[in-house]
Amino acid sequence: MLEDLVVGLAGSGGDGVVSAGESLLAAASSQGFYAVMTKSFGSQIRGGESSCRVRLSTRKIPNPGGVLDVAVALNWEDFRRFGAELPIGPDTVLIHEAKAGSPPSDFAPPGRMPREVIGVPLAELAKSSAGTDRAKTSVVLGALCSWFGVSQEALERGLQKKFGQKGAGLFEANRKALASGIAFAAEHPLAAPRSLARPAAATPKLLCDGNEMCASAAIFSGCDFFGGYPITPSTEVMQILSRELPKYGGVVLQAEDEISGVGSAVGASFAGKKSMTATSGPGMSLKTEVLGLASIAELPLVLLNVQRGGPSTGLPTKPEQADLFQAAFSAHGDVLRPVLAPTSVEDTFWLTVEAFNLAERYQTPVVILSDQEIAQRKETVDPVDVSRLEVLERTRPTPEQLAQGYQRFADTPSGVSPLSHPGMKGGNYLAAGIEHDAKGAPTASGAVHAAMNRKRFRKLDPLQERADLFLREGPADAPLALVSWGSSAGVAREAFGLARARGLPVKLLVPYLLYPVAEPVYRNFFAGVRRGLVLELSHQGQLYRVLRMFVDVPGGVTSFARSGAQPFRADEVLARMQQLAEGL
Amino acid sequence: MVPIVGIDFERITLRDALDLAVLIEEEARDRYWEFADQLASHDSPEVADFFARMARIEDRHRSELLERRRTMFGNAPSTVERRQLFDVEAPAYEEARAFMGVRQALEAVLAAEVKAHAFFSEALPRVKDPELRALFTELRDEEVHHQSLVKAELARCPEKADDSEAYADDPNAQ
Amino acid sequence: MESFLAPNDYKSPLKPIWCPGCGDYGVLQALYRALSAVGRPPHEIAFISGIGCSSRIPGYTTAYGFNSVHGRALPIAQGVKLANPDLLVVVAGGDGDGFSIGGGHLPHAIRRNIDLTYLVMDNQVYGLTKGQLSPTSKRGLKTVTSPFGSFEQPINPLLTVLAYGAGFVAQATPADMPGMTALIEEAIRYPGFSFVNIQSPCVTFGEEEQQLRAHKARMKSLASLGHDPANQLAALDLARAYGEELYTGVFYRNPHPPPTYDALVRQRQVELQRGEPRPRARVLEAYLKA
Description:
The complex is a heterotrimer. By secondary structure, chain A is an alpha/beta fold. Helix content of chain A is 37%, strand content 18%. In chain A, strands 6-5-4-1-3-2-14-7 form an eight-stranded mixed sheet, sandwiched between helices. A seven-stranded mixed sheet of chain A has the order 9-8-10-11-13-12-18, sandwiched between helices. In chain A, strands 15-17-16-19-20 form a five-stranded mixed sheet, sandwiched between helices. In chain A, α8 links the parallel β8 (225-228) and β9. In chain A, α5 (152-163) packs antiparallel against α6 and α16 packs across α19. The radius of gyration of chain A is 26 Å and the shape is globular. Chain B contains five helices and no strands. In chain B, α3 (102-123) packs antiparallel against α4. Chain B is elongated. Chain C is of the alpha/beta class. In chain C, 30% of the residues lie in helices and 14% in strands. Chain C is built from nine helices and eight strands. At the A-C interface, α8 of A face loops of C.
């Protein structure tokens, strides 16, 4: 019985490959499986090559998986276009449209050809059962249902959702197509049968992606204003909030450009509201100046950057983790702003809440570095107990403070000065990008400037002690270390589990807080470490470099990094760790 | 909409008319190749193949007319330019659609043939020279013949409404 | 006498990603023909664009292309033309690229009057990112970022560009291919900043009444209305109907085009050099204290 199954499907956008994946995902979730789905497609807006991968498991899923257990090719050309995104191996069950013939001889790298290859007359079965060969993906779903133990009833519900509104008879036709797939599979059992284990009781789960989680968390945190601009792959956050935020009394502005988007958000913050913007790399580049303004004016702001391939226009639909330098350092002058990174759809929620809390408490922009994979992959998530999440408000001046000559930027032991906003009598002040004294008056004094820099940096000192914003696993004295962040951390976690199961002396660190670098946490973690890897998806290995700026990283800890759009696999990370473990 | 600019049908020579006929087929051929490319890169191989077939047919028509021109006028330079034609027999770009079926493609071809026929019909009254009239009449009647071929194929095509849009995935943001 | 360049000499082998039925295919075809009519060879043409579906267009021609960043095609193009005024410079983009994020650059490109041609493929939607509101979307339009209907009054591209003082302003649609081809050619030939707003519908995210079939029914040529393109006030008046009427043709053509910025720069360079080019190696002589 299988606890885990990774299915990859490829065909053309016109075939409804992604919709089939969504039906499979929904069916699996309703059965009680954990499931995650990613998709990939060509450069056409519609109708190009299209693929998706669905991973089902009885346990929580750390990442979308590596080598496929099941590969479905509606035609060979489209499947091949996805290359290393849909890796196959000898143990993969390769299902294909029978009409397409046997796989081309160079379909798999040498030694990687699947042992079990099954041609299914998809178009023919679709035609005879549903009246159109377009229904082939429903036939596929039927076959998967029978061979691997996905519930037929659940799949039918998925079909109802897709076809129910689209015209008389479409759902019925596809239901028949599904049944014909089931019948075919029953008559042609797999040579090496594999069926999914029954999940424990089907508890209700959430099914959503990272963008949906972030938007929801913003609403939960009390965000009242969103200003932004469309950019792939973050636009969904703005679209969701356009629909939902007004229902909570908030406002969404699709501004004329990225700068206006963040500018309006800073304005809303100045006016006393929790506010947010969302973008990707190119937009982040444009927003730099206003971010600097928010830092010196000490205004709270949450900025979501859903990283995509860069630089410049780069690879708009692929994940990469190469915006860390920018998130941490892009500003002229001495600026320190917190940077947080989720590692999954699930932790995007609490991490976004934390981002708002940090922004409000420390009166600073906070960057959330998500990436295309987390933002757009659909995942089942255990329900979130929001009662356990604290929502913090900005410190406002008390009536006494307002009555006694309020000074907006007066220094305090913590470095945080109570923040007033227009409408608050007695709290009037000038916010500015120009350097200013405690009252907010412009100054060119070097002494005041130095004191203000110290204040703005000092207020963030508590972040050095935030070990709660790190995930640590494994024996404290392990000599082998694995560090990773963002979507790569999901692969690291799986590899770590495999390594521990093989007795490797390894410990894992996943920072959620990337910047400022919490030196005590790293000092503690790296104590006794002789070798290790920092795993991330960027050409330069940006976290590795940033750590080396601030921390004594042991010489044997190296960077395992490569350009985006080529996600890591747990098996290759494990292999590297096994190599490093030799002789330890 | 006038599909041809800068040609006076009352003064056109036989050579010009043949050159025009060649260009009309050429324009249609190139458009069908474009449609074949568009539908191929939007993953509709069956419709792409259909348009490729149309392109080859138009190319054949072109070759036949070019042969006649060469026989009568050799390689004398042409005074008619491709730039003067605007979709005389070529289907308009907006006839193509992602996920279009063969039936819709046939309808686009039929519309193009009807358009071409209308063009020759309208030009005919203005043409005085008997040899030219004969040519234009022949070209016009060819279109009728083509139309009947297309209608025959349409009749063989399933009448059922195409559900392609219902099955297709949602568009992708880039 | 230069050798004749056919429209297909401007066609690159790259296959467009545009959806079948997209208005931009017509624009591309018209552009091949217009460039062929003007006759400059592809290597002397610089074709600059921003980001969007329509901004992919330079890659589908054999000219030197620059598919740059969102909204910045005009600044980049002006730099190209000033660096080498002998080049033919064409600029393209969508309504979002040009009037939203690029809006701030418009007045300055126009008042500078550098000799280039700006083609905007206006489809009132953000196509590449999947259907958001655009600055030329009708008020009240429901999109994924205006699910309850937009509150915003659309920008009027024609009025805006005319009001900023452009010397050549026209509107076209692929529903009238001969007309659009002639307008693009005329815009390229105009000595100075020239603008053609092209109603090029999005077949995937546009409304039914925005498609080319609807254009054919609605379009009215300015010539048929008896409009005199030398009359700027009349042009402004007609431009006000953007959104209600689909007027095609030349709204305004300055009958006395002023010298272009690039021509004036050249003239001044000549004057300052007084016929003698200065050796750059001697640049520091100005600071020598004898």
